[in-house]
Amino acid sequence: MRGRQDANARGRGEGGRDAGERDPTRRAGRDAKAKRRRPRRWREAEGFERARAVNEARGDGRAGTDGEIDAFASRATVLGSQWGDEGKGKLVDILAREYDVVARCQGGANAGHTIYDDDGKKYALHLVPSGILNENATCVVGNGVVVHLPGMFDEIDALLKAGVDARGRMMVSDRAHLLFDLHKEIDGLREAELSGNKIGTTKRGIGPAYASKATRNGVRLGDIRDADKFANALRTLAADAAARFDGFEYDVEAEIVRYREIASRIEPFIADTVEYVNDAHRNGKKILVEGANATMLDLDFGTYPFVTSSNPAIGGVSNGLGLAPRKFETIIGVAKAYTTRVGAGPYPTELFGDVADKLRELGYEYGTTTGRPRRIGWLDMVALNYANQINGFTHLNITKLDVLSEMDELKIGVAYELPNGKTTTAFPADIATLENVKVVYETLPGWKTDIANVRSWDDMPENAKKYILRCEELSGVECRYIGVGPGRDAMVIKP
Known about the structure:
This protein is α/β, with parallel strands linked by helices.
């Protein structure tokens, strides 16, 4: 049974001042030092609005460098820092207007990214990169993504119907592995086998597709160009599945015919994306990488086995695109102002009862991909700091701060009390330990004011500012972007 401990811990569970008792002189000194540590291009930029003003003055839709410092890094990555659904798609959509290339590097249709256009129209994307609304950007689906082609074309067709044409500005790696309906079938059969130990998969076939890749009998997108090679490879996959699972049903010959029809349609999208993104880098193009899933679901670093089958942490960016790590300047971690999780697995700060129900409804916490109600919890700073340790975030985007506006008080998990009585700020690898930790909480006052229409840091309620500043103190990372609603404009840039 997962325990709970409500304590007004200081810092990371060690001494220090309460959130409401910070010395303003010391705080100002820390702020000044933090500002000096920022890269110059970030330090001199005053947020999206200044960049947009520069763009308009130049008349070319791009941030300028003549007399003005570009507001955005040339190569940036947006990564989830919790258990997914943090709101990465919105930030990518906003940033994408300033980038030449927007790329996906891992995951598949299990990633659900919701974005809105300037008219408030909603788009739910799974495989198409969230930069697709930027007509000047090339969208890249990298080699690390597993691609279900019928699902991708469903998205492309829906976008076209809405007036967004992906043709000519989206490419898919010839090295990307294909995900077939047989992988979805295997996913369901495998989950049924686990019985009481289910992972909570989305049943989109992601794990089985990556398993095919790892056992070296997968089918890559480039293989579709050779009809005989493709057919034989798919027959081998189907035979392996039939031998492994009782009740496996799959018409492989019908699928082969289906993909022969798809082959001609996908051909214009197939590209050597490794060469493309490296050429883009050499030519000074601005590249934005959109992470899928999140660090706490990483195959190596997440709450294994309750994880995804790829690497949503920073390592997956290089492996999934073929870009060297040193080529990235800015890594933005996205975190909700609270936490959510879909599926099974340990979740130390999870809430139940009225508070959980209230936050779930206020935040409309239902999965984009599955529609399942998300599990709800307070912000877990132990997990967030662990994600930062792995990824090396340069900035944080705190999303859905507005959802907390009706709460009388807020809690942040700052440490774990282990079953042996010791207190730690490290994130344990052992699942049984995680399921039995007691969370040490720090309590902060709520602001009880609707902030959905707030657009500047100065207009933010004082207690909302204190919450963000405390997150900065506990994480050691600048909380640069603060989401206060779903729309593109519902973003506060902290000066």
